[in-house]
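Issue: copy button drops trailing tokens. Both records pasted manually instead:
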Amino acid sequence: MSTPAFSGGGGLFTGFTQLCKGLAVVLVGGHIVVQLLPLAVTYLALIPARTIPFAWNLLTAGYIEQTTYGAAISIFALLFIGKLLEPIWGSKEFVKFILVVNFLTYVCVFITAIAFYYATRLEIYLYMPISGFHGVLSGFLVGIKQIIPDQELSVFGIAKIKAKWLPSIMILLSVTASFFLADSAAYLPMIIFGTYMSWIYLRYLQRRSETNFRGDPSDEFAFATFFPEFLRPVVNPISTIFHRMFCGRSDISNEGNGYDLGGIPLPGSDSIEASRRRERGARALEERLATERLVGATTVDGQHIDASEEV
């Protein structure tokens, strides 16, 4: 199924949810605060050397954009991706996803900065103020990969890519850009850890309302699917090791949730639920696009046309 998703239309700037608008206000407010009171960065951004006792930095850093272009990109992406994900997940789960992914991302960034300092003895890793919504935005792309993996999205009307490759392309572009940008340490760790932490959450922790089970064990959402086909034989053994290290207990706990003791899905429990999720995601996207096209069709050459007459 192909559709000109996110490529334009009369309703492109409509349909934003109230929750996403509220979160956008939070991002705008955080940006204004650090612009008017630069000292606030010391207390709100993540500065690894000061995280103890300022542990709240692990929560607040994700909502503080230090640059205007960073704030603009984050707000734009939040509004447009949020109006796709929130109706499917529900407002409560959408907020939970943001809070969990943001927190876990900055915990990983904190640990990485400390490790880099001990490896290099460069104090920049301890005192660089790190903040931004990049980790959650990367996580949103993983959510799109899960819901509509085979949906073709138009990129500026030039090319089409499948949604399942969005997280991988984002990481590839970010890593490539890091070789040419001096401040790559200010955004690259958040993008990488945001992608991985969101996959961990959606794969093992997110409670599915339709079954009341946790996670998404489908083969189409395995860690290896983030990589091209020729790399998967190398990635699969590595991902299996980490799966057993960090998520082995979840396999046992899933015995009564459609899985046997080895963590293998019982017949039908995997593919059916994954298929239902993708169908709901594709249906929600199609309905939203149809609504936007209808809104756009109500105005032709500046003259309002009754939508009911159009139908």
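Record 2 (pasted manually too):
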Amino acid sequence: MTDPSPGEGVRQRNLARLLRLVHLDGPLSRASLTEATGLNRSTIADLVAELGRVGLVEERAPDPSRRVGRPSPVVAVSPHVVAIAVNPEVDALTLAAVGLDRRIVLRERIDLDHLLTPEETANLVAGRIAQWRAGPLADARILAVGLAVPGLVRAADGLVRNAPHLLWNDAPVRDLVAAATGLPTVVGNDATLGAHAEHLYGAARGIDHVVYLNGGASGIGGGLIVHGMPVAGAGGYAGEFGQNRPGIAAAADRRADGGVLEDEVSRTLLLEAVGLAAADEPTLAEALAASDDPAVAAEVARQRGILSTALANAVNVLNPSVVVLGGFLATLAAMDLDALADAVAAQAMPANMEGLDIRVASLAEDRLLIGAAEAAFEPLLADPARAAG
């Protein structure tokens, strides 16, 4: 395929700019798009028409509350364009159809009593997509599949180098899912994708320096935003906070000899404390909140103390403006966010704590799915005409 001419290249960039604006910010009037891009009204009208022809946006009636000047049609992404987001875990496979407008159109959690293989994952995803296409997604335009995997994912080709809790090593999950579904597929680390979602739409929106920690069934991962940009590292493996070895002052507080953070701050240990074999995030949070068992309170306090030390280390090294906690870490933090911040401050350098805010992930259970969908949508957002063709 030949490279576009300079004029075609400018048009591609302008199409991408418009589509990304209405994707990130929601429906916008043509007047707002003109102001945001600096393009003239006729160019905006032409670009919107082209995006409409390829089924990516639609125009709606002007906002009736706008009473000054000439009414301007509102441009919104098509509600029929979706990506399939997938999060394989040790206890469940969660799938969702996520719209280009960020709506969770469908969601399903498949509870498991065994560890998924990469091949089984691909077959389950293909099976659900086929069912959804024959039913609730009959009118949808499914563009791609995005997987948020709890493990090391090589950025260059999506190879899952190591998902230790799933026992996946050098697993070609991207290729397996693409072959089973017939759809373009992207794979990323779950916490990295969660950090990206929270930065775009959630608790870290508009923040340039962010540390994100995700607590899931497979352990603890993380993501970094520096100068407003995701930091993946040389191979795509940055952010593995769960593999750090926390300092634990009291030997009685240690549960794993020489264990890493995710051995000590653990969803499994919380489930055991409240007597649950498995649970989704809201169910675990409700069980912890409802318990009056001193042993449960002690386990929560132990884990919060170790988490505060890990966060202090991250704050000292990275000097973020915001720390965002997702998954069961959000549950632990939300029990007393101010007290957790005080515990972090007691162990961090005072200058690094200035202006620091510790927040829970505002996208809650949607964060990994939205992050996976964003990765799936990226080729379309970068070049709408080519990706939609």
